[in-house]
Protein: Large ribosomal subunit protein eL32
Organism: Marine Group III euryarchaeote CG-Bathy1
Amino acid sequence: MSEENEHKAKIKPEISNETKRDLECRDEKNKGRPAFKRQNWFRYKRLGTSWRRAKGIHSKLRRGFKYRPSKVKIGFRGPKAVRGFHPSGFEEVLIQNVKDLEELDVKKHAARIASGVGLRKREMIIERANEMGLRVLNGGEE
């Protein structure tokens, strides 16, 4: 097997036991969390499925009738310590240029390149991140 075809394992974060526990707790909560959909999303094609709060005075959803789907409530949130973390355990940081990479900690941060970054600058960012040993979440094939 040549060096080009060799599999390279993805970089893993160094996280505490509490953070691991919180990530597992978040995963369990995500499994039990309903897909919150807008009222009457199935009835009209023009309505999207993304959540909108029910505001009608006669709305059964707003009044919380049992045969209606769940409303968005604070109890469905995940643990505060791991909110916004990537499923791998890294804390995601949005990167605009190569200089932004210097501020990151390789052990706990992962880079996500901003959508407005062009191809030339994107390649420079990926190259520098690989030199540092930093994980790029949307860097294509690593």
